Amino acid sequence: MVLVAAVREYINRMLQDISGMKVLILDSHTVSFVSVVYSQSELLKKEVFLVELVDSISMSKESMSHLKAVYFLRPISENIQHMRRQLAKPRFGEYHLFFSNILKDTQLHMLADSDEHEVVQQLQEFYADFVALDPYHFTLNMASNHMYMLPAVVDPSALQQFCERVVDGISAVFLALKRRPIIRYSRTSDIAKRIAHEASKLMYQQESGLFDFRRTEVSPLLLIIDRRDDPVTPLLNQWTYQAMVHELIGIQDNKVNLKNVGKLPKDQQEVVLSSEQDAFFKANMYDNFGDIGMNIKKMVDDFQQVAKSNQNIQTIEDMAKFVDNYPEYRKMQGNVSKHVTLVTEMSKIVEERKLMLVSQTEQELACNGGQGAAFEAVTNLLNNDNISDIDRLRLVMLYALRYEKESPVQLMQLFNKLASRSPKYKPGLVQFLLKQAGVDKRTGDLYGNRDLLNIARNMARGLKGVENVYTQHQPLLFQTMENITRGRLRDVDYPYVGNHFQQARPQEVVIFIVGGTTYEESRSVALQNSTNSGIRFILGGSALLNSKRFLKDLEEAQRIARTSTNMV
């Protein structure tokens, strides 16, 4: 419940003390922060009759003095400008201003000077400056997510903005949790180091008073790592429910857009997938695809039983009972058809793109050695006309990451074949990935073949067998959490910032991945938290990735890197 509960608590506090009819005014960021934790019907219960965006409300002139305006905005300069204009000609009876992060003194003075009509009743900072997707998973939805791959010299001011937004997001999470952490970062990443130092400066110097909470016995840990330490996870096909929906269809702020899927009624063209609002999804979000099919069949059977009993209406009492239960019945019907639609659509995509075949080779590349067999398998798939361009590209990338040092000649052969079979992808993109996230650039033991302990562990796993060939991959994050739990996270790989060190094992850990998280990793965190190891992990990232988004960021970074080298 942690993150979701924290944001809900802030929104409750915003709305419950202001009686009467309200309009809630958000910006393009805070609309996401609110929508993932609060439903439309819950807002109505709090007498919010209108939800508007701050820039569109600027266009309107009509007076609404009977409404009280509740603003919830990020403290960025364009929002301050909107507020100044709107306070100069007030349209609402009262103004209640809430900002999702720390306001600068200059911004406060500007707002105070603009309130000539004295309509502002209150101004507060409520630190919900992140999208709480699940209780232990947050994202910052950053459009400029590709910036993490670019050296600082390419665009210093854009990189500075990127880092500031990440620091804002991380600091808001700790303010919402009322904690001040010890900070560590991934040694080989310049951007992780920079963000770690800037976060430390904010928490221990610039705003040390704000972060001066009652000390817990052991400080929590903030670990800042780089997506490029594990470029494999976002490239893989997924076979557990939530991750698979995002990989094959796409989830944005816990909503799935199904407009392009067949002929669906209007109310099913966008569906909500939230563990807080959907009991079936909560129970099955981490299960593999085979089990989901069985569980949906059971849900359909249960629904048919309910439907059958509803057909048997004979007396007035029966009818009254049916009407009473109708909202529940409708909700159940909507839920059944939502999950049936999703699974049907995913089965279709799996069949069309031959993903069972592709994924078997992907998992082999990610988890097991055997370069000769891998080369043969990838070559066969590149030659297969049923395999889509994006799947060919991902296979070559996974092969290149695994065998970049072992077989340069065969790697060149795959590059050439990719160029001829899928001409829209230039081999340069695979080389750019190796330059970004090749073996020399990574912290940690991605393939479990660098240190003896991991080699032994992998052999043991191989002997025990894996329950499912499609879900045998473990993200690097799993190993990182295991190392933290056992007190084995090496200082040389993950140095501390400043002179704040961890004396004992932390009880709370926030791991932030610069470059974005995946649902496979958030599943790992949820499963780790359910083992009751005495440590609670929270995962955050600059964006939420699937393979399409990861490749889009890679292409964008490559394009900018190219143009900047041409300019030099």
Please give the largest β-sheet.
6 strands, mixed
In CATH, the topology of the largest domain is named Rossmann fold
What is the CATH first-level class name of the largest domain? Alpha Beta
Oligomerization category of the chains in this entry: single chain
CATH architecture of the largest domain: 3-Layer(aba) Sandwich
Count of β-strands: 13
Helix content: 40-55%
Q: Give the averaged pLDDT, no decimals.
A: 89
C-alpha Rg (nearest Å):
26 Å
The CATH H-level homologous superfamily of the largest domain: Sec1/Munc18 (SM) protein, domain 2
Global shape: globular
Describe the structure.
The protein contains 21 helices and 13 strands. The chain has 568 residues and is an alpha/beta fold. The protein has 4 domains: 3-128, Sec1/Munc18 (SM) protein, domain 1 (Rossmann fold), CATH 3.40.50; 133-231 and 474-562, 3-Layer(aba) Sandwich (Rossmann fold); 242-353, Sec1/Munc18 (SM) protein, domain 3a (Syntaxin Binding Protein 1, Chain A, domain 2, Alpha-Beta Complex); 355-441. 50% of the residues lie in helices and 12% in strands. The longest helix is centred in the middle third of the chain and has 37 residues, at 316-352. The strands form 3 sheets. A 6-stranded mixed β-sheet has the order 6-7-13-12-9-8, with helices on both faces. Strands 2-1-3-4-5 form a 5-stranded parallel β-sheet. 40% of the residues are buried.
